[in-house]
Design brief:
The chain is of the alpha/beta class. The protein has one domain: Rossmann fold (3-Layer(aba) Sandwich), CATH 3.40.50. A 5-stranded parallel beta sheet has the order 2-1-3-4-5, sandwiched between helices. Helix 5 links the parallel strand 4 and strand 5. The chain is globular. About 5% of the residues have low confidence. It binds flavin mononucleotide. Flavin mononucleotide (FMN) binds next to helix 1.
Length: about 200
Amino acid sequence: MIVLITICIFISIGTNCNHRCSVRRDRKGFGVARWIEKKLEERRHRVYFIDPMELDLPLLDRMYKEMVSPSEKFVELRDKIKNAEGYIPVTPEYNRSTSGVLKNTLDYFLEEYYFKPSAIVSYSPGMFAGINAAQQLRLIFAELGSPSIPCSLAIPRVHKVFDENGHLIDESYDKRVSKFLDEFEWYVNALTTQRSKGTPY
Ligand SMILES: Cc1cc2nc3c(=O)[nH]c(=O)nc-3n(C[C@H](O)[C@H](O)[C@H](O)COP(=O)(O)O)c2cc1C
């Protein structure tokens, strides 16, 4: 039996080769994130797809909990993050780190993530698959109280794994993502069970 898991996928905003952020299909990460979303839905999970490009949040001034009268956009985002049982950030690598816009989105919240696991997906056009960004995200999610599962899904040469429309062309990834999501589900179920018994704080 698969327990219904509500999962947030955080995608990055793209600065693509042409620096045309408004052209959604040019973001390599968009196809990767949509593919993960599909895989989760095939497992009957509910997915909240969080796209900073659509959200268009300002640079952080106040965290959500410090806002006197948060706009509807922030309330909705907060509810999604609060209600989720796990998180999957999908990150590119920019200058050996994750995307600044992804981090800006994450930083608005804190307690909302507590005691729920994260599972990191990274990609790059080169052979290192964005592993530096993934390592940075491990630190960030640890600080957010959302420990990352040991396995991560690192996708090198992303342009050879997904076509220009974001469709998977390297079918070996179907097997890899299955193992990755099996492990994530295990941690989500384990921490959900423990949270139901209470949390230390
Ligand atoms: C400012 C900038 C810095 C980058 N730094 C790195 C890097 O450190 N390592 C890397 O593998 N790729 C780097 N890249 C290449 C990106 O990983 C590549 O453009 C990727 O497709 C970005 O993801 P996106 O298409 O989803 O926006 C960089 C790209 C930009 C625009």
